[in-house]
């Protein structure tokens, strides 16, 4: 099938929850090198809260579902990542609208609106060593795949691969946003924790949309 339904979106969120939980120590280890050692805990706590809320009041449309996701992340995760991921999902849902499913183009537009929200909130640019550096290339790759006629599964696989490459490319960068920027040159030589969790987000999406 070439659409993702509410069940598919919910499976995506659950798969992301599973990944941040499984890689909780690793994300925290990355954040201990260039931050305050809480990114794994933040994401695992936030996504656990999200799945609890989503399970308690199942949504029938994308805007409803992602509003719950975004609000829960904003309120349950302190620090930079809660409001940023919260904004991503809130904008994603607002753009997807009151629909029960999205095709690849609608999903990509909604994700793009989410990224725009992250940028509006955090002012990150390419190369600042943030989640932007995984998210922006992922969406560029997804759009390029769709433009050349890719299926939803092919488009999300391209996004996953580009997010992973973007994550890896953060290693040599000097951070210019967030806590890691306080370290200046000493932030180089480490992967960015938020770019790493964003790569998990796209890995989860590719898994649930794989045909
Ligand atoms: P905190 O830094 O408040 O402890 P987290 O550790 O949970 O929050 O998240 C840190 C991640 O947030 C960073 O690795 C980076 O990817 C992301 N981040 C921080 N500031 C920004 C920003 N202004 N724009 C985009 N992403 C950001
Ligand atoms: Mg932190
Ligand atoms: Mg913190």
List keywords for this structure.
211 residues; mainly alpha; Serine Threonine Protein Phosphatase 5, Tetratricopeptide repeat; two-stranded antiparallel ribbon; 3% strand; globular; binds adenosine-5'-diphosphate; binds magnesium ion; glycerone kinase activity; kinase
Concise description?
By secondary structure, this protein is an all-alpha fold. The chain has nine helices and two strands; from the N terminus they run βαααααβαααα.
Description:
- Pfam families: Dak2.
- One of its GO terms (cellular component) is cytosol.
- There is one protein chain.
- The protein is an all-alpha fold.
- It has a single domain, classed as Serine Threonine Protein Phosphatase 5, Tetratricopeptide repeat (Alpha Horseshoe).
- Helix content is 70%, strand content 3%.
- The chain has 9 helices and 2 strands, in the order E-H-H-H-H-H-E-H-H-H-H.
- It has a two-stranded antiparallel sheet with strand order 1-2.
- The chain is globular and about 45 Å long.
- The mean pLDDT is 97.
- The structure holds adenosine-5'-diphosphate and magnesium ion (MG) (2 copies).
């Amino acid at each position: 099938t070439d659409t993702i339904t509410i069940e598919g979106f919910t499976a995506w969120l659950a798969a992301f929850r599973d990944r941040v939980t499984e890689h909780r120590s690793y994300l925290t280890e990355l954040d201990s090198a260039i931050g305050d050692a809480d990114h794994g805990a933040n994401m695992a706590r936030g996504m656990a809260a999200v799945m609890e809320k989503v399970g308690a009041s199942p949504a029938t449309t994308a805007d409803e579902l992602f509003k719950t996701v975004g609000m829960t992340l904003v309120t349950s995760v302190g620090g930079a990542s809660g409001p940023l991921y919260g904004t991503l999902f809130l904008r994603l849902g607002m753009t997807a609208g009151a629909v029960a499913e999205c095709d690849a183009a609608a999903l990509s537009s909604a994700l793009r609106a989410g990224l725009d929200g992250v940028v509006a909130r955090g002012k990150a640019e390419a190369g600042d060593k943030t989640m932007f550096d995984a998210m922006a290339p992922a969406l560029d790759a997804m759009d390029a795949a769709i433009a050349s006629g890719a299926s939803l599964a092919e488009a999300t696989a391209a996004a996953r691969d580009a997010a992973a490459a973007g994550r890896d490319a953060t290693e040599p960068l000097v951070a210019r946003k967030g806590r890691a920027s306080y370290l200046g040159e000493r932030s180089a030589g480490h992967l960015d924790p938020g770019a790493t969790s964003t790569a998990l987000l796209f890995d989860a999406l590719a898994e649930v949309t794989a045909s």
